[in-house]
Structures are given as structure tokens and as C-alpha cells.
Write a structure and sequence with these properties.
Length: 230
């Protein structure tokens, strides 16, 4: 999910490009390295998950929509549950990839703390958008599923650890360049960033939600005043 000519883009343009690509590809979640038949099954299941709960999806529904034989499905997956779990994890993993790539561009191309701040402001704007409430609910559903599905939990843990480790390394590099305060643990910052990008889900239920701009301003103030160097 590369950004065209990233060296010529501002932090804001980089973030916009990455997040737009994320949703332009919403119906195609399987990675390009996956076998074509397996990829088709994953993408088809991902589309069905947009309009059906996991328990409503059947093997026949997937096969009819994908135009693939039952034998092929069981060649690539142990059962329907594994296919559904894979489709959900691929979508979750793609969000992780976008997040890591956005932070990588921001933190590795910054020439001053201001560049990082502007990029993070745009990430805040994007992730807290009321239009993305469905994405926040989806991520919460994935996390909730992990509590009762050991196989799913193990795979999700690997994806989640990749995100935390990648962000931690990037933040540590920013600290080495005196962009972030060194007296705050980089892993703690990495977890905080993930928490606030999803935390707005609490307010998504409210009939009288907080003004999105006011919420974003709060997060941006915390980032600027607590984490970044003066």
C-alpha cells in the first residue's frame, strides 16, 4: 500500500493518501501473496461480513457468491469458521499496515517536531471521524471474538504485537532525534496512540456525542504538551 512519491508529500498529504487507499480497497482485503482461489474466498467472505453477522454466513452462501467449489474451500481452510476468522483478521491487519505506514512516513521524514505534530493531527482527524464509527465497532468486535476463540486470539495477538512493536520502534527513533520526550516509555506511547484512535467508540453510542473537533483538539493538545519536545 505504497504512497506515490512520498518524498514530495507533506505529512498531511501522506496520511490522507494512505487512509484513502485503505477505504478504496475495502472490498479487496486479501493480500496479493495469497493463492488466487484462497484470496477470492477471503474477499467474498469479507463482503458478506458487511451485511451479515458471523453466525448468519453459511458455506453455501460463500460458495455461491465466490463461484468456487466446496472442495476448494476445504482445501484452503479447515472449516468455515477459519475462513471467517481469516477474512476478519485480514481486514484488521490492513488497518494495522496503514497505521504503521502512516506513522513511518511521518516520523522518518520529519525535519522538525512540528512536522510530526501536523501528521499526528491528521491521523487524529482521520481516525476520530464520526463516519468511521463502523470501523471502530468492527475492531471492537474482532477483539471481543478473541476472548472465546483461542485460534483466532493467537493470530490476532501476532498482528497486534506487530503494530505495537513497529510503533514503539518508530517512537524510540523519534526520541533519539529529540522529537519526543525521552522520559516517557516509547511502548506506553505506542499503546496510548492505539487506544485513542479506537477510544471514540465509547461516544459513538451517545445520542448527544461530543463535538468531533473538540475531541480531536483534546487529543492533539495531549500529544503536543505531554509527549513532544518543546
Amino acid at each position: 500500500m505504497a504512497v506515490q512519491n512520498p518524498a514530495t508529500l507533506s505529512p498531511v498529504e501522506v496520511v490522507n493518501s494512505l487512509f484513502e487507499a485503505q477505504f478504496d480497497l475495502d472490498s479487496d482485503v486479501a493480500r496479493s501473496t495469497v493463492h488466487p482461489t484462497k484470496s477470492k474466498l477471503i474477499d467474498t467472505t469479507a463482503v458478506l461480513l458487511k451485511t451479515h453477522k458471523t453466525g448468519e454466513i453459511t458455506v453455501d452462501m460463500v460458495l455461491a457468491a465466490a463461484g468456487i467449489s466446496k472442495g476448494s474451500l476445504y482445501h484452503h481452510f479447515e472449516d468455515l469458521d477459519e475462513l471467517i476468522e481469516t477474512a476478519m483478521l485480514e481486514r484488521y491487519a490492513r488497518w494495522v499496515d496503514v497505521s504503521v505506514e502512516a506513522m513511518t512516513h511521518i516520523l522518518t521524514t520529519a525535519k522538525a517536531p512540528k512536522d510530526i505534530y501536523l501528521g499526528l493531527v491528521e491521523i487524529t482527524k482521520r481516525t476520530q471521524d464520526p463516519k468511521l464509527s463502523g470501523e471502530r465497532f468492527y475492531r471492537a468486535e474482532v477483539l471481543a471474538m478473541a476472548s472465546s476463540r483461542p485460534r483466532f486470539a493467537k493470530q490476532l495477538a501476532e498482528i497486534q504485537q506487530h503494530l505495537t512493536d513497529a510503533l514503539t520502534d518508530l517512537i524510540r527513533d523519534a526520541q533519539d532525534q529529540d522529537y519526543y520526550r525521552k522520559d516517557i516509555d516509547p511502548k506506553a506511547i505506542a499503546v496510548f496512540i492505539q487506544a485513542y484512535t479506537m477510544g471514540k467508540i465509547i461516544d459513538d453510542f451517545s445520542p448527544s456525542p461530543v463535538d468531533p473537533e473538540n475531541y480531536a483538539n483534546l487529543i492533539n493538545t495531549i500529544i503536543k504538551e505531554i509527549f513532544m519536545t518543546k
